[in-house]
């Protein structure tokens, strides 16, 4: 997935959504804690995974139904705000303030603040500035890139002065927290919650490669990675950057919900690379030779693994020829932990 240098705000936002981790994602455990006012449209909509829609005919008892968070028109000179608890304390890099479909009712500007705390904020909490007053456009996926990443657990978004925002996405990175593990306990270093991240794939026509690394099992077929039907030969693949240098002991390939479209078989390779995304010169080593896959089930590969004595930074899942996989787990030991 190459970055298009002529990117529009829309394609830039889409690229972030495909390649970065949204620390506020509800699928990871992000939540909306409170807000000053959500008279027209509920605060919880801010974290919906779906793209916002506009239904011209749909009205509620309060006014126009809107797919987002929307407050009343303020007449008191104050501002509206909402507080988000991130799924995990992480390093925040870019915030997307998506005002799609809010045309005559978007805020003029927003301000963002943060804290890094194990407990939820209260009235006495001292918030720190993340991004000072920034103008936002109506009906746009506004991207606010921070000058410096900030470690945050909670975000306060202020609309100046009022209005509606469809979605909020907080892009950043997660680090593996070793203190949460017992000594000698293996860990899934591909899991998003442990700092793993999908960095590249051949195709993600139906659903995102990041879904493969989400917690728990997939809720439906969309909650996985699915490619289009291949007509020109070849095969599909995706690359995960593990959170730490890992000695791999077990891998899992879960085809849950993929019944008429699971891949016929798979192989897995691994490499060691200092780059975020390994290039064409990377030496990949096969760690799992060809294995038959089956519909709608989790496959655990333990004894079938090869070259497991080495330490790896990246893993490539090859699926033949195409299809869908719900989850992918890479369980092993962090270098120096054995
Ligand atoms: N047509 C509207 O959207 N009006 C109002 N908003 C809603 N949701 O009804 C407003 O005042 O912003």
UniProtKB/TrEMBL annotation:
One MF term in the entry's GO annotations: allantoicase activity
EC number assigned by the record: 3.5.3.4
Protein origin, superkingdom: Bacteria
Pathway: Nitrogen metabolism; (S)-allantoin degradation; (S)-ureidoglycolate from allantoate (aminidohydrolase route): step 1/1
Pfam families, per the entry: Allantoicase
Family: Belongs to the allantoicase family.
Record-given protein name: Probable allantoicase
Naturally occurring in which organism (per UniProt): Endozoicomonas euniceicola
This protein's encoding gene: alc
């Amino acid at each position: 997935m190459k970055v298009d240098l002529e990117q529009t705000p829309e394609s830039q936002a889409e690229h972030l959504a495909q390649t970065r981790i949204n620390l506020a994602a509800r699928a990871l455990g992000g939540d909306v804690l409170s807000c000053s006012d959500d008279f027209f449209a509920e605060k919880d909509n801010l974290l919906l995974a779906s793209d916002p829609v506009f239904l011209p005919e749909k009205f509620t008892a309060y006014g126009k139904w809107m797919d987002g968070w929307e407050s009343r028109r303020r007449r008191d000179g104050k501002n509206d705000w909402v507080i988000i608890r991130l799924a995990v304390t992480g390093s925040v890099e870019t915030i997307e303030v998506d005002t799609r479909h809010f045309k005559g009712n978007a805020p003029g500007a927003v301000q963002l603040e943060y804290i890094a705390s194990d407990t939820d904020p209260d009235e006495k909490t001292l918030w720190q500035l993340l991004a000072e007053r920034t103008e936002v456009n109506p009906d746009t996926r506004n991207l606010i890139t921070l000058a410096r990443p900030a470690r945050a657990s909670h975000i306060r978004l202020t609309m100046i002065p009022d209005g509606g925002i469809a979605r909020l996405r907080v892009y950043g990175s997660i680090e593996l927290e070793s203190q949460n593990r017992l000594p000698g306990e293996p860990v899934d270093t591909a899991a998003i919650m442990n700092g793993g991240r999908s960095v590249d794939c051949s195709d993600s026509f139906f659903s995102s490669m990041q879904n493969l690394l989400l917690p728990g099992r997939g809720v439906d077929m969309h909650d996985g990675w699915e490619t289009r039907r291949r007509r020109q030969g070849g095969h599909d693949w995706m690359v995960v950057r593990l959170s730490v240098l890992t000695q791999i002991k077990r891998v899992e390939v879960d085809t849950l919900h993929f019944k008429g479209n699971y891949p016929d078989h798979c192989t897995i390779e691994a490499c060691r690379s200092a780059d975020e995304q390994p290039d064409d010169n990377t030496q990949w080593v096969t760690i799992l030779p060809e294995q038959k896959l089956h519909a709608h089930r989790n496959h655990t590969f333990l004894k079938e693994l090869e070259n497991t004595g080495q330490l790896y930074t990246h893993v490539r899942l090859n699926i033949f020829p195409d299809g869908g996989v719900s989850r992918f787990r890479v369980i092993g030991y962090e270098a120096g932990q054995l």
